[in-house]
Each structure stands twice: as structure tokens, then as C-alpha cells.
Amino acid sequence: MCATYENPDRTAPNPAPSEEPVVLDRRDGPYGEVVLRRHGGLLQIIANGVFLMDTSDGRSERLLVDAARDALPADRSEPSVLIGGLGVGFSLVHAAADQRWGRIDVVEREEAIIDWHINGALRDISGEALDDERTRIVRADLVAYIHGGNERYDALCLDIDNGPDWTVTEGNHSLYSPRGLEACREMLNSGGILAIWSAQPSADFEESLRNAGFSNVRTEEIPVVRGVPDVVHLAIRAA
Predict the structure, then answer these.
(1) If DSSP states are collapsed to H, E and C, what string results for the chain?
(2) What is the pLDDT of residue 6?
(3) pLDDT of residue 5
(4) CA dist 109 to 47, 75, 103, 113, 143, Å?
(5) C-alpha 1, offset from chain centre
(6) How many angstroms separate the CA atoms of 39 and 54, rounded?
(7) Are strands 188-198 and 230-237 parallel, antiparallel or unpaired?
(8) Of 157, 239, 156, 229, whose CA–CA distance to 9 is shortest?
(9) What pLDDT was estimated at residue 50?
(10) By C-alpha distance, which of 190, 236, 195 is closest to 215?
(11) Which residues of the chain have a pLDDT value below 50?
(12) Confidence (pLDDT) at 171
């Protein structure tokens, strides 16, 4: 699973305390327990008892995709994009609504999450995007998929864990390591864009991107309800 471990400041206010969450499905998988539940008007994904994400706000996901698109050369026709991971589907839906994108691959390791989008309650969000002929869902661990290096893309939009300075899932930190960033660079076509969501800015990570051979490294802030803004780190694979 390539999940977003949400910063509490990133989401809209929770439903009223009197509303009890209702479990819609519960699965045991190779990475532990994953639960889909409804809490008021929100759908929520819980993994191993930890809140991962909900349907309260998709601003970060939209900016992640748009920032990568806007950083590409304007004359690049039908650029391909890798989205990691599927989550509640906001990134996929936003990419599929933009006719500029060509191939849209989404990497997600949790079979349950994929099934909830295909056959469950999350299909109301992502159904049209899943049916788009440009979309392909790849069931794989994102870190392993990137290190495999079998595909090339014009943009990588990565939204896993809390970012380079605050990883929760074992193994995710390797994505932000020199070897992981090198694998990301090799997966990009010349002039391609790496876009990584983070719960907080990181000057050290910007330097790591430059050391990994990326150029035009910058950070865009995403306003949140309260607290430190979320950010998207952007970097270009030089021609």
C-alpha cells in the first residue's frame, strides 16, 4: 500500500462526536489489517489501527498532480504520469479529468483498497477515472516498483507516508535515500518531473534532490486549516 499518513492539520474538521464510525469492510492482508469505514459524510481508511486518510479534502492531491503537469514543457504531448498510491482516489480522479495527461498508472499495494474502488464504496469517487482508457492500476509496493525500473514516465507524483523527514511505514524511508532518488531519476524521461508530497518542508531533502542529479528543485506550500503548511517538493531530471 502506498498510503498517505495524514497530518491532522491537513483535514477538514471531524464529524460531530455523537456520530459513531461505521465499519464497511475489514480485511487482513500481507501488511496487516485495513479497514474502510464511514464517519458521518466521510469515508476513512484505517490501517493497523492508524488513521491513514479520508475524503474530507483533496487540495493536496490536486496540487501534487497540477504542480507536476505545470512544470513539464508546454509542448510535451500527452505526458505519462505515475501516481503512488491510490488512497481514496483524489489524485487519480484529478489526473483523469485533465485531458493533457496521456498514460496514467497508479501503484497501490493493498488489494483491499483497489477492490473498494472497483467494487466498493470508493467507486462513487473514482469509477469514471478507473474506466478511463488511459488509467492502469498496478498492484505493487511503490518502493519496489520504482527500484524495479521497468517503466519510464514524464512525471512521478508520490504521496506516501508523511514525507522524507517523518516516515511511519517501515521501508518507506528508502524512497528518500540517495539510492531511492536515483531510482526515481532513472524512471523519468529526460526533462521529467518528480513531485513528492510532504507534511512539512525540508531544506535537507531539497539538497538531497540536487545531490541526486535533479535540477530546478523547489518547494510549493499547500495551505492547511491550522499549523505548518503541507508542501510538494518538485525537481526536474535534466535533459
Answers:
(1) CCCECCCHHHCCCCCCCCCCCEEEEEEEECCEEEEEEEECCEEEEEECCEEEEECCCCHHHHHHHHHHHHHCCCCCCCCCEEEECCCCCHHHHHHHCCCCCCCEEEEECCHHHHHHHHCCCCHHHHHHHHHCCCEEEEECCHHHHHHHCCCCEEEEEECCECCCCCCCCCCHHHHHCHHHHHHHHHHEEEEEEEEEEECCCCHHHHHHHHHCCEEEEEEEEECCCCCCCEEEEEEEECC
(2) 39
(3) 37
(4) 13, 33, 20, 8, 10
(5) 11
(6) 9
(7) antiparallel
(8) 229
(9) 84
(10) 236
(11) 1-13, 17
(12) 66
Q: Which residues contact 139 (CB under 8 A, 6 or more apart)?
A: 108, 109, 111, 114
**Predicted local confidence at residue 9, as pLDDT:** 37
Amino acid identity at 157: C
N residues, the chain: 239
Q: Is 164 exposed, middle or buried (0-12, 13-18, 19+ CB in 10 A)?
A: buried
* Spatial separation of the C-alpha atoms in residues 191 and 155, rounded to whole Å: 9
